[in-house]
């Protein structure tokens, strides 16, 4: 399990092993400017980082050395060059960025160039996210409290979602990871509110005002429960909300104001970054107190993100996947704490010595451990792959349904136009009959 944190002038990659952070790779800007964001690609081989001088750096994690693939945007000394947020598409082909210059951009990572630059928003862009069933939308949360929506394929504006009663800044925008809820957007505001928007209708679905006593900073959807949403704020709290019931169900207290947050893809571990440079890890199965607290810097943690969940079969395909960057997940159970049972002893007689395990074909305890681990890896791999296939089938089915509904809607409109034209022709025919 990997965790990346943007704190101070560096983006640092940490290994997480049983609640302990071990510092690994560091990525910095040549001008020693502040790091603002870092995101993993879908297979954890690429890490994209941004800085206050506008630099967007792509680094490969395949080797142990700091290897930069390319810089999409070079750093500058301009006042409006700061990049506040990044987000990768589901296949990691496209990257979106937004910042102080109020412009949302789409980058093509395959061709390593700029694909689209949308018309400027009315204020600074704090957060960006892909959304929709197939990442066909782009959402941008602004300082003005407006939520801008764009068409990713066409490079055009789709609309603006506004809450007239709350014009505070949007600090975080995230789309739901669940297949049938990809059109749902979660936003948190400087007023401490949480709001959920529906992309299909561009309407407000849920609004929870004053969920935090201070500005809210991050929002994440649970990858397990489709109605569970976690929000963090400068009031030192992580609030868990059931958006289906519009009800707060739990709360975690932090010793410091929370500036960043990430939930692991398996939904059991939560990481928060604070304004004091601390990173706190929580085991959500027993979240009465932090699992561990680490000082990663002296500046506020601006971004924190867990690596993506990779099936075990892919993790162990090559020797490089067995490097120190691949760590076991933070999971413990009573079964793992109990030593494996020893094999039954071989029968012995008074006239002969006991046969060795090798001679009789009975596995030793270490071999039993290896066999148990391999079986567990195979089981986990199959389960993950089956789940991924199932989710992909559901997503494709939903996309086909939406395309069919759109085609039916277009057909109805065309039929309606034909009926109107037919009526107009009939009226014109009657008028001509009376005239001549």
Automatic annotation (TrEMBL):
InterPro entries, alphabetized: NEDD1_Spindle_Assembly (IPR052818), WD40/YVTN_repeat-like_dom_sf (IPR015943), WD40_repeat_CS (IPR019775), WD40_repeat_dom_sf (IPR036322), WD40_rpt (IPR001680)
Region listing for Disordered, in residue ranges: 336-365
Pfam families (UniProt xref): WD40
Entry annotated with the keyword Coiled coil: yes
Keyword terms of this UniProt record: Coiled coil, Repeat, WD repeat
Sequence ranges of Pro residues compositional bias: 338-347
Keyword Transferase: no
Intervals holding WD repeats: 76-117
PROSITE patterns registered for this protein in UniProt: WD_REPEATS_1, WD_REPEATS_2, WD_REPEATS_REGION
One GO CC term on file: cytoplasm
One function term, GO molecular function aspect: gamma-tubulin binding
Gene3D superfamilies from the UniProt entry: YVTN repeat-like/Quinoprotein amine dehydrogenase (2.130.10.10)
GO biological process, one term: mitotic cell cycle
Coiled-coil annotated spans: 394-435
PANTHER family, per the entry: PROTEIN NEDD1
Name under which the protein is recorded: Uncharacterized protein
Native source organism of the sequence: Aphanomyces euteiches
